[in-house]
Amino acid sequence: MLCKRTYKNQITLPKKIMEDFKDVEYFQAKAEAGKIILEPMKITPASAPPIEKVRRKIAALGLTEKDIEEAIAWARKK
Description:
- The protein is α+β, with helices and mostly antiparallel strands.
- Helix content is 37%, strand content 18%.
- The protein has a two-stranded antiparallel sheet with strand order 1-2.
- A hairpin with a 2-residue loop joins strand 1 and strand 2 (35-41).
């Protein structure tokens, strides 16, 4: 697919390509053998607030809001 560089050295990537990278906000760019290579990157702040760490862990475990509500209800019964 054709992309054009603007006078500010910006390139717009075609929507069809970006559909595969919906959740990606940052890309690492490098030049290699006469080609431009973009690699999706996930930026994680070095000192994320504790609540963000908890949210990431919950997401990684695949827990839902209902799961958490049930766990809280169970813990409060004791």
